[in-house]
Amino acid sequence: MTATSLRLLALFATLLVGFPGVENLAVKRQAVQPEAPKSGSFYRGAVESPPPAVQTGRGFQRGAVEYRPNPDFRPINPFALRNLNSAVFLSQFYYPSLYADHFRKLYPDYYTPFAVLPVPISNSIIQKDGSECLNGQALRPNPDDCAGYQSCVHGLWENQKCPDGLHWNAEYSICDWPSNVRCAIEDTSSATQAPATQAPQLSTTTPRPPASSTTPVAPSTTSPSPTASPSAPPSSTSSEAKVICYYTNWSWYRQGEAKYSPDNIDLKLCTHILYGFATLDPNKSIMQVFDSWSDTDEYGPSLYAKVTALKKHGIKVLIALGGWNDSAGGKYSVMVNNPAARRRFIENAVIFIENYGFDGLDLDWEYPKCWQVDCNAGPASDKPAFAAFVKELREAFNPKGWLLTAAVSPSKAVIDAGYDIPSLSRDLDWIGVMTYDYHGHWDKRTGHVAPLGFHSEADVAYFNTEYTLNYWIRGGADAAKIIMGIPLYGQSFTLENPSNNGLNAPAKGTGQAGEFTRQAGFLAYYEICKMIGNGGWNVVQDEEGALGPYAYRGDQWVSFDDVNMVRKKSEIAKAMKIGGAMIWALDLDDFRNKCGCETYPLLKTINRVLRNYPESSAKCDVKSVPEVTRPTALSKSTCQENSYKSHESDCASYYHCVFGQWSGYTCPNGLFWNKEYCDWPYNTECKGSSETYLPAVAAPTAAPAKPDSTGTTESGAYVEWKPTTTTAKPTPSPFPEVALPDTGFKVICYFTNWAGYRTGEGKYKPEDIDPAMCTHIIYGFATLSPSELTMRVFDSWADTDEYGPNLYAKVTALKKKGIKVLIALGGWNDSLGSKYSQLVNNPSARKRFVDNAVAFVEKYGFDGLDLDWEYPKCWQVDCKAGPDSDKPAFTAWVRELSEAFKPRGWLLSSAVSPSKTVIDLGYEVAELSPYFDWIGVMTYDYFGNWDKNTGHVAPLYAHSQVENKFFNTNFTLNYWIELGADPSKIIMGMPMYGQSFTLEDPASNGSNAKAKGPGEAGEFTRQGGFLAFYEICHRMKQGGWTVVQDSEEAMGPYAYKGNQWTSFDDVAIIRRKSELVKSMKIGGAMIWALDLDDFRNRCGCERYPLLRTINRVLRNYPEADPNCNYA
């Protein structure tokens, strides 16, 4: 057995049973101790480094002093106590030259001086070739050669040489011009050596302030700038090193300068591109397109085709499967543990990759056994089953020459529990180790997103990149297949106390969301460098060189990797001779050079080290970034987050409060600022000139697809739109106070949180709600945790974050106007898979859910709960998917919720299917009716692009041209009543949108005409096959559309232009439906959704024309201007 094997064995034994001699620790006793030499700093950043530690039995030797354990030692720090045994072992048996110093910083009283020894003559600051080191340890100078440096290879130091004419610059760990390097050796043949007291400076020497200090610390700004471009140090793998870049499809949806498309990719900077993500269908256990509109739709951006087109430039393009969100629940475990399901998946994956032209597959299940890092969630069988899955994929991919890779965890616990490393190494082309997110807001204290090495203030010895990579290699991975992950983002925190702002400072939650990424606790590098460049931030470089920098301002704190740290990591990847580096993600680097250094400064740094990309003379120090583009800092005065104000002198400009400071912006050409958005100039109070009038144009907000009860998914993205007319939009005014009589009819309005992500005229906020229009508001959505089977906030930043829109609070505030506000659970997307079925069929899970729901509703101040599981037994309309037991189990769940809610005076309702088949299989109608306060029947989406023929979204009555006489509102409502529903509890659903189609033949444009797919996406809703009413009426106003009214008056109108066709409800059919509600004496009407009516009056009639029509019929709202006409 090798020495390394013995050390590993001893490590595991020590971690299990503890270190002998410290189980029964007594109070530390004071003793007279011999004076010890002054200890130096951490090995990376020492100014005066001590001699290296030498192992001596159960202690270690430092220079002339031998240290042995103090048997009476007791650690005071509880985190130190937790990790004492492993730290003791590391300091004594495993790389003692590296870890002894770290241990003494953590536990200064554990070792005591035992004896004074003679100093060995051979002892020197730099260990000679062949001495012990840790793979991945930072590069260091060769003490005998100015042009040389040493790298750690297989645990031993090995000499390397800079290219001719260059010297090793220890401060920046690069080969540099001799004029930039201080070297005491005159030439490489000189016998003169550096003095033993001189240490290599492998990182900035800027001191880190104490945690209680608020003094700004300026990092070093003396980065060398050679007049030419020295090559990076030579490496046998430099020409073969991979630089693997993740491309994210949702970055296409971001606003303005943050929008990232395939055109933004620099073809010289990536050897491979991984497209994130495809997802796993939980019912069929096969790959599926995640966002069909953006990924594959010919009427959308068609990102699959655009990214795979980069293959012609020699880049390999793989599709990544999974990701964090898609790894929720047990669907991957179910698949890999079933040989038949694995076979079905593989057969489908081959078709998928061939169909879309990818070069292979990247597996990103997070993680086997440890689902989303919960190692109690999955079965132990996940580990061998995942290995078998990879092996079978390898066998299928080999004949096709495809690549097979995986993104894997950096956590030792997850690695141990989830990965058969030797097996995976054999079958994967590379293993992308996600060496980031070691620390984040979930820790409740500050920490670095991606430590390079062990830090003296760290309490876990293995939470760093060096340890992780070596652990994978020691576990059996081929080093040449290991890829180091590098983050192009930072983890951010909100400090509990702004004056306590160092590492491990208590944090009360996530940092404020970035201006563009809009995710609390997360900032893109381009957001970080821009904030720092604007001033007011204190940047702290780690004196130990183990971490990248962190920065703070007020109570905001962020850790990140800068150019210097990315260079260090890349040099380590090179020195370790691993496979290369991967980045998360392309859209997060400063790809537009907003910080004045260069485009892609981090990614180019990786390429300079690994692939000899040309050097740059630009100084990319984040502290010295100049302000080169807007937003510009207005002043140091504080402001309320996300508030706006007009510019003092420029009608087209405005200010937005970002991170407590005003930043300046400019409206698109031709528009002026109007209080909260860019608007037509003559609708604003500002006087100026403008020759060209364009609508409010904004780029997309970063919003993931959100659940939509219409049976589809809204992406939340927008593109620039230039209409052919210049019809002015009336200026919105405050809603008048209108007192309406209580007629007994309900008007129930759904509010969707993702509508706030839209931009320009499509953006919808709580302030846009007319309180007179709704008796009840239902907030969509909360979702069901697949692991806990309890309610959870869906979008924490938008819903509840105090630094975000805080929509829960703003919508529930409408209760003071007499409106009841409920939270809706579910929606179409959240109904995917089996989790709701698992919940309702398990009595103990139901009880846990009910208890949690009570706490949830109380905490956020709602008036009740609206259930939107689509649907019992018929999961997402597939009536073969669920068990028959869903039907009675759903009733039991509703009964138990009702029993918990009624004593509190809360409302309980449900959105239910209009389909006769689903009603028969999924609902015990007569049993459910007594427990619900109302039953909202979703009498819409009877027809859509899935039918391959045109049809109306929401017919009122059966139509002569429609074979299925059940597919209409009148039949559905009466069927629910016939089965036992109380008519006074039945609510008719009305759509504020249309279903759209692309015709096969523009000349065949009637009802039931053949359609080849969804219609073109709207300029604001950006979803193929779906148009908001305000998008439809605006099209009609523009002209060129033919509007057809139904001669049978069984349904609303449809309209067509060219090959585009859409059906919708207009004011006239909404009035007739409302009259039917009244005549049937049912409970009222509900709308999907507030943000889809013409709430800004884009079409020149009135605001909310459809919703007001409902209120005119059911609640005696004042009639409209008779000249208001949408025809």
Structural notes for this entry:
By secondary structure, this protein is α/β, with parallel strands linked by helices. The protein has five domains: 114 residues, no CATH class; 67 residues, Beta Complex (Antimicrobial Protein, Tachycitin, Chain A); 370 residues, Glycosidases (TIM Barrel, Alpha-Beta Barrel); 65 residues, Antimicrobial Protein, Tachycitin, Chain A (Beta Complex), CATH 2.170.140; 301 residues, Alpha-Beta Barrel (TIM Barrel). Helix content is 23%, strand content 20%. The chain contains 26 helices and 46 strands. It is globular, with a radius of gyration of 32 Å. The N terminus is likely disordered. Keywords: Chitin-binding, Disulfide bond, Glycosidase, Hydrolase, Signal. GO terms for molecular function: chitin binding; chitinase activity.
Structural class: alpha/beta
Number of domains: 5
Q: Beta fraction of the residues? A: 15-25%
Q: Compute the gyration radius: what is it?
A: 32 Å
CATH superfamily of the largest domain: Glycosidases
* Low-pLDDT windows of residues: 1-68, 71-129, 186-238, 624-637, 688-733
The fold-level CATH name of the largest domain is: TIM Barrel
> How many angstroms separate the termini?
87 Å
CATH secondary-structure class of the largest domain: Alpha Beta
Helical residues, percent: 10-25%
**Count of DSSP H/I helices:** 26
Q: Please tally the β strands and state the result.
A: 46
Task: Give the biggest sheet.
Answer: 8 strands, parallel, barrel
